Amino acid sequence: MFARLKLLMAVVFALTACDTKTNPDEYKIPNDNEEALVSSDKYKILSDDSLGNIKRSVDVLLKERITENELKAIAQKIHGDCTTYERTFIVYYLPGMKIGAGAWATTHFDPNLKVQIFGFLPDEVEAVAMDSLESTSVIGVWLDESVGAAKYILFLRDEKYFIDREFKDGSRKKFEVTPADISEDKSKFLVPNSNYNEYYQILPNGNMGIFDDDGLIVVLIRQ
Predict the structure, then answer these.
(1) Averaged pLDDT, groups of 10, the chain, 223 residues long
(2) Residue 126, SS3?
(3) Could you say which architecture CATH assigns to the domain 124-222?
């Protein structure tokens, strides 16, 4: 009897549960202006997993930085497509970010919506300035778009290399780095006296990775 009951419950759940393998390209662009914020040209679902009807976990790749209102609209769209689950956890990444190594933002329905944006919003990126780096040779600027959101500026001053790290709250830290290669093609910079052999590596696509003894920590997006 219990076996039949379990089988019946499984069939009912299968009929009522959401299809977590939906192709994001199948999303239609709604006619409503507000719903148009979540058209598929703004994002792509990378993974959509579930644990029974208790939890749904979704990884989303955004095409570019968006506003908080746009993020909420996308969250409501993804959540609204499948309301079977008690809790839905949605994690957002920007192009170039490593999945699982820090998110740009999260929108968790636990069960009510909670929005957290760790990286930079579009207007915050436009406000990035380098006024404190006069008389220097700036090599590049990168952004950490994850929980430790910060701007990294690699520059040369008096034949020495430095990284100026400025956080979203305005606090900053400047420290010297040493090229690991003495050739002209300098792409790896060591952090002197680092307990975990931390170093910065400019990647082939122009982004910068921060590494230590355990491997890649986070990928910084080039500006």
Answers:
(1) 38 41 34 41 89 92 93 92 89 90 93 93 69 68 90 91 89 92 77 93 93 92 89
(2) helix
(3) Beta Barrel (2.40)
